[in-house]
Amino acid sequence: MKKTLVFLVLIFIYQASFSQTDVTENEIKAHILFLASEQNAGRYPGTKANRDVVNYIIKDFKVHGLLPLEKNYQQKFKARLRVAQGEPEKSLAKTCNVAAFLEGNDPILKHEYIILGAHYDHLGMGGPSSKFDKKNTIHYGADDNASGIATLLEIAEKVAANKKRLKRSVIFIAFGAEEQGLLGSQYFVDNPLVPLSQIKLMINMDMIGRLNEANHVYMNGAGTFPGGVEFMQQLGDSLRLTPIVHAGSVGGSDHVSFFKKDISVLGIHTGAHPQYHRPEDTVDLINISGQKQVSDYIYKALMTFTATEYKMAFIPQE
């Protein structure tokens, strides 16, 4: 009886350890269900729902032992919100980036940073960036970009569980007001919390929840660091993914702000779809198992850049 009890306890401990240190489909889905819920109403900057999402991210960072880059994890700023042509300007919205980090263990390389980022805001009830013709309709933003934040949190959890392996330090950032013109990432590079010269790579995840049947993962900017195109291609092939890797074409999301500061970048997504910037971008259309595949891919890449002496240098692109 005692042996059986001990065995069951060991099994429980193993399973608990596994669930806390691996990227899981259940946790990915749980994060997206919260982020893209009706109560969060599209996570629009300056709203209570936006602040609730910030608190959710901070709580998850704290639980897994990530340290704040500022005293309370928040890098606060005011966002100028987009309005349709001819409409009066809105008041500046108070919002923030949420930033946390894990310190590397190498006495020299720990002063270099790899950033993993994703934006947490969306369009709220629509607005000028919406592709839907009816006003005041919740834009849930499950893929754009609850998917990216879900993977950010899951990878942060797994990296924290393996932090003894880190040589370089890792910064995790949930950016605010991306949909208003990359405002959060622009604020970060204009007001950096670490010297920009010490940031060696910024990996950005924006819309990674719709992996298609061909397992296409799209990447921009892989040519901005040494061997990036070849490495991301080969790693994807080994994980049964089909990477579409571009050396340049660095456009479209928060990594652009870093590229403009001569920082190497990698923008990752799983492709456009008809629900983009529409209310129909909902949780039921997320490919959860596919997102786990993509998350594992990004985790393995991140750990190669942070847990080894992978050479980092900025390579300009068109």
List keywords for this structure.
single chain; 318 residues; alpha/beta; Aminopeptidase; nine-stranded mixed β-sheet; 8 helices; 9 strands
Which percent range describes the beta-strand content?
15-25%
How much is the average pLDDT? 93
Helix content: 25-40%
**Could you list the spans in which at least 5 consecutive residues all have pLDDT below 50?**
1-19
**What sort of overall outline do the alpha carbons produce when their principal axes are compared?**
globular
Give the CATH topology. Answer: Aminopeptidase
Contiguous helical run count: 8
Write the CATH homologous superfamily. Answer: Zn peptidases
Secondary structure tally: strands? 9
Overall number of domains: 1
